[in-house]
Amino acid sequence: MVRVLLAPSLAGFQAKWKPLRRREHNQQRSISAHSGSVETEFAPAPCRSALLAVAVAGVMALAPFCGPLRAQEADTNGQRQWAAVAPGRVEAVSREIRIASPTVGRIAEVLVKPNDKVFAGEVLIRLDDDEQKARLAIAEAQAAARKRVRDDRAAPRRSGPRRRAEDALADAERAFADARAALDKAAAERRSGGNSEDDLTAARAEFDRARERLDERRAKLRSIKADSGTPLPNRAEGELAAARGELALAEVIVEKTRIRAPIDGTVLQVQAKPGEMVTPSPDQPVLLMADISALRVRAELDERDIGQVRVGQGVVVRANAFRGREFEGKVTSIAQLVGSGGSNLRGPRKLTDVDVVEVVIDLADPGPLTVGMQVDVYFRRDAP
After folding, report:
1. How far apart are the C-alpha atoms of 5 and 142, rounded to whole Å?
2. How large is the greatest C-alpha to C-alpha distance in the chain, in angstroms?
3. Does 184 lie in the same domain as 104?
4. How many domains are contained in the chain?
5. Cα–Cα dist 93/360, whole Å
6. 31 φ, ψ to 5°?
7. Does the pLDDT at position 176 exceed 70?
8. pTM score, two decimals?
9. CB-based contact 82:381 (threshold 8 Å)
10. Beta-bridge mates of residue 299
């Protein structure tokens, strides 16, 4: 946060340097300062007044753009006074979500573009999956072979309920994978205009039912295994369980080639193109998204003004992009940690910056404000 010290008046400058105007045009003088000695060459007397006038005018012109930081530096609208003032940025209610690839791979298809609305679980980017699908096919074949071996052998006494529960769980897992694949296809076709919103709704409903059945089968198998009277699996049953585990692992590896939306929201930026290689690095996101159904402001309040701000306090938000407009809001949270500022401010941190507290403001009506926009937050003074 930068504090602006306005320059003295032009008359003050002229009075200060009046003795110097009697010197010759090329006279030089060393001026001693706290930080050392500075050699300054002065222009001819007629020019110095003009230069000083330009300097004063420049400082006065820059002052309004340096953002007020405290209440006594804030502007006044009639008799309106502010308890505190702080700079901030507009953000989505979910904040910005940086999505990276979960595995190393080559991008095969980018299914979304900026400003697209997406639902939680929707595929955004698909990586090449030929190798992963081949391994999945091998695992499926091995699991099927192990099941035939198990069925050809006599079941141990009292193991029937466990066998049936294990088979039912395997069927539910397969049905869940099929329902997810059908949902992915319906979402892609709807985005390309190949089917209607009703088709997508039906696919999502079937996916939800498949997930519920899967949870039920898992719970039932756990209860059977927890029964002390359930016998341990024999060798054939153990080999089948291992093969099914390998199958589940292969399905997980295939799933890692699908980059999905973590929440319902809007795509803000796409930083990926088909053919590019991606790695699971948080510093290299392939996509940015957020839930922009509601916006708020995250401000950095000077620690000296903490006593002037409380939760529920009314604020006015102003943005340089919309001069003359004010956006109402209320303080919803005040951080319990004082730290160095700079995360939400204009430009890099400077030596004159002060410690701040993060304050979150919910906007009643954000209007044309957008995510990432720089704003100034004016905290209303409580009525006497």
Report:
1. 77
2. 117
3. yes
4. 3
5. 10
6. -105, 125
7. yes
8. 0.72
9. yes
10. 88, 359
